[in-house]
Structure prediction request, 278 residues.
Amino acid sequence: MKKTDLIPFTKMSGTGNDFIVFDNRDGLFAGDESAFFSAVCRRGHSVGADGVILMDRGDSAPVRMRYFNADGGAAAFCANGARCAARFAFEKGFTEDRRFILQALDGSHEVEVRTDTVLLRMTEPAGFTASTGVAVDSRFHGAGFVNTGVPHLVLFLDDEAALDALDIASEAPFYRHHPAFPGGTNVNFAVRTTDGAVRVRTFERGVEGETLSCGTGCVAAALIASRTGQTAPPVPVRTRGGLLTVDFDPRWQNVFLSGPAVTVFEGVLRPASWSALP
Prediction:
């Protein structure tokens, strides 16, 4: 990171999944500042967020995003982060077009910045497994796995009351580090509602805790619910942070995620003052 006393940032939220976004067109960050990214995501001590997004000029597109989890580690993709990145790029003048290509580590994505929502085309889902054999509790059924840019295990419950009562902090780590997933996995607990929607709670790898929303997790839950005959696209997906919509074709491809992505506030960081923090 280049030496500087003040670092401008933007705080953004995609259905409660919150991010610290930096305009990195001048190359302030190299991308190897994991300790800094972890520190700035610490709630109560700094801005606080689920992750950090660096916004660069694209190589073959107007915009490139790089995403880092709250632990400071780089991640291949974050769907809610990408939707926030798209709105940031449009509002900051990276491009004048509301429809453009956003580059990420997992590939290029079509995006459309609308008045109230942002539409994101996902990479094609991969590695789908309808039955993983890892569920060890009779409350969980219909377990499936799919990579929607990052790996996701989805465990279904019978009703919403059971989902609400779930202690994710104690339940999820067993699956998060299960030997069936050598690189680890995100863990989603879901239920199909009576109106055909899906409700999801997600324990995110790299955050190592539950987030209010996870875009790639919502996509995973919607795809697996559809492939197991529980619902059909477009699928409304309710998270604790808000409503997202997942749409896809009958082959479970051409997957799109849409929902709100908003700027919460802007400010400046003073890294020199952090030396006094515990």
Q: What stands out?
A: The radius of gyration is 18 Å. The chain has a mean pLDDT of 93. The longest strand covers residues 7-14.
